Amino acid sequence: MALTIRDVAREAGVSTATVSNVLNRTGKVGRRTQRLVVSAVRKLGYVPDVHARHLASHDRRTLGIIVSDIENPFFPEVIKSFEVRAQQLGYDAILSDTNYDPRRTRRAAERMMEHKVRGVAVMTSEISVRLIHELARRKIAVTFLDLAPVREYMSNLRINYASGVDQIVKHLYELGHRRIAFVAGRDGLKSNAVRLEAYEQRMKMYGLEPGPVLPGDLRFEGGMSAGLEIAKMSPRPTAVVAINDLTAVGVMKGLMQTGCRVPQDVSVTGFDKTRLAEYSNPSITTVDIHRETLGKIAADALHELSDSANPTGKEYEIEAELVLGESSGPAPLT
Amino acid sequence: MALTIRDVAREAGVSTATVSNVLNRTGKVGRRTQRLVVSAVRKLGYVPDVHARHLASHDRRTLGIIVSDIENPFFPEVIKSFEVRAQQLGYDAILSDTNYDPRRTRRAAERMMEHKVRGVAVMTSEISVRLIHELARRKIAVTFLDLAPVREYMSNLRINYASGVDQIVKHLYELGHRRIAFVAGRDGLKSNAVRLEAYEQRMKMYGLEPGPVLPGDLRFEGGMSAGLEIAKMSPRPTAVVAINDLTAVGVMKGLMQTGCRVPQDVSVTGFDKTRLAEYSNPSITTVDIHRETLGKIAADALHELSDSANPTGKEYEIEAELVLGESSGPAPLT
DNA sequence: AGAAATTGTTAAACCGTTTAATCTCACTGA
DNA sequence: TCAGTGAGATTAAACGGTTTAACAATTTCT
Fold first, then answer.
1. Cα A87 from chain centroid?
2. C1' of C4 to CA of B31 (Å)
3. Region label for B57, one of left (φ > 0), alpha (ψ between -120 and 50) or beta (otherwise)
4. A2 and B116 in contact by Cβ < 8 A?
5. Distance, first Cα to last Cα, chain A
6. CA distances to B137, B209, B251 from B171, in Å
7. Are B222 and B184 in contact (CB under 8 A)?
8. Can you give the pTM of this predicted structure?
């Protein structure tokens, strides 16, 4: 039905093998013949079929990336740099979105198997460790974010959340803040627990009493109600460490609604360095987790894992970096 | 090497055809045999190879979507609803990001051809009409945003920008504003030109002099410098219509930096209803372009185009809707 | 009971490409 | 002159599924 390699071969007056060799630049074809084939391809507008190609050449050149929510501003940048890097390494990249739903996570993993990818970057925590092991058992390389120990075909990307929190608390301490509240995120998430823990630890290191710790939901609303609550506390904290930027924006809104000024009365910090941090008013002091590095390293890790003879997993570390904004300032004189 | 349908057939003691029939629910298999096959599949953990499947069954069940920039907050929602709808219709969806680069746009289109997709939703304007025609000529259904007239295998999704602008101007007029400025976007973009034109037309309809029209860049920075400029105009406009939300945020920042209050002194409106509009402070009066509808309709349009016997293109219209925020209010008494 | 209709299963061809094995033939060197 | 060489091209067998014509078994009908 559609144009095949046979049509090209006929047009150029050669065999299909020759066409294939020209297309794949194996260098086995004479210059004259090469020209013939190329012009036949041009003339006919032939485009090879990726499915037939994958099937015939046992060499699978696809990488997958699974994210929990493409609408979460954290992911697009990661996806993009993953895809760019994958392409540089000669892979096709496919994306699946799980929407935080375990069923769809299963489907996503199955899709990766169906597509016979060489590796998958798992950027969500709704996935079960069993599923990861299943992928690895099928010799599909996997990278994930601190979900399991490293093993065969499994590498780990550790984001240094603790260091980010450390830098925030240090920053606030040096500005003179002593009562520093924390607005948490969702309970189940390991990445959230790590940050809370780091906060508590660092506070103690400075000889400060941790807390109060307010509940949040990783969303604007949770931040806002926390902000309202904090505004009427007595003694009122002079600084708030929020679990992410969106929460920080909510906190600021809550504070401002009750007349608290940011940062004159209360300093607020976020996490993740989303665009929101930059564009909110005041802009937010936050932590940059180098998302483009994350995506790139994920692709590199998969490449290395699936390419080498010994697919032993490795640990990678992604650094976090404090970025100053207008939302943090000197503690008010009591 | 990996598990094939033959392994399953052997395990179940049937032929490969039978396994295939069970997997594809053709209903030609007896209950007993069905059970045998299913349990063999389970036991072995067999997952079919998508490439072999596509190759053998000539029925291509993939749709593609090409966007200019996945990091642009406009797209993720569109992509998601496109993928969800595609899946409901039984398609696999693949995504390409062009990064506003014509070369990458070409690559994206080629990728779609290589994958032998049934249809492509083109959500970028960097694509040449030639390329769209080339896709259509290969009987790949295409939908786009007002890039070309409808033809065979080509449907058009028209976003009603004009109506959105109309609603904004009407809203401001009714609040008593008479001097309404406009902050433009990028010059080449048709979608931007349409909005500017609609603004001018509507202003005249109300017997108002359009302008001033300030340049922008669809980014925060352009908005901010426009905001600074507007602040020192005399007589100062009492309202500003910005080309998009990000620009509006910039405008507000610029205004506020010079002591103008929003909306007490100057009202500001955005466009697109990104998260930014909701979370900025004050939140922005903006226009919602129903992105999830856009994605869904794109998938539906492709399905219809590629499914029916006569692939005649159609026109679809996406409505725009005013959403009130805190950034617009009554015109100040002069 | 035997023919006809229905249902279930299989063997073999095919999808569009790659690739190992094989063939051709002009050229080299002894 | 002729075996040996090697570059360039071809042939044919995969790859992992689906599809279809043909056959076998069972049920239905007369």
1. 17
2. 25
3. beta
4. yes
5. 81
6. 45, 17, 19
7. no
8. 0.91
Contacts of A71 in chain B (CB under 8 A): 76-77, 80
Q: Nearest CA of chain B to the CA of A274: how many Å? A: 11
Residue type, B297: I
Specify whether the CB–CB gap between B203 and B196 falls below 8 A.
no
Amino acid at A306: S
Where b means 16+ CB within 10 Å and e means fewer, A143-152 reads bbbebbeeee
* Pairing between β-strand B286-288 and β-strand B321-323 as defined by DSSP bridges: antiparallel
Is B58 exposed, middle or buried (CB count within 10 Å of its CB: 0-12, 13-18, 19+)? exposed
- How far is CA A198 from its chain centroid? 21
Residue with tokens 């595609």: B86
State the residue for tokens 């109309």: B166
Q: How far is the CA of A19 from the C1' of D6 (A)?
A: 21
Which of B265, B299, B298, B270 is closest to B283 using CA atoms? B270
What is the residue-level pLDDT of chain A in tens, covering all 334 positions? 689 999 999 999 999 999 999 999 888 888 889 999 999 999 999 999 999 999 999 888 999 999 999 998 899 999 999 999 999 999 999 999 999 899 999 999 999 999 999 999 999 988 889 999 999 999 999 999 988 999 999 999 999 999 999 999 999 999 999 999 999 988 877 888 899 999 999 999 999 999 799 999 988 999 999 999 999 998 999 999 999 999 999 999 999 999 999 999 999 999 999 988 998 888 999 999 999 999 999 999 999 998 877 788 899 999 999 999 999 999 998 6
Contacts of B246 in chain A (CB under 8 A): 279
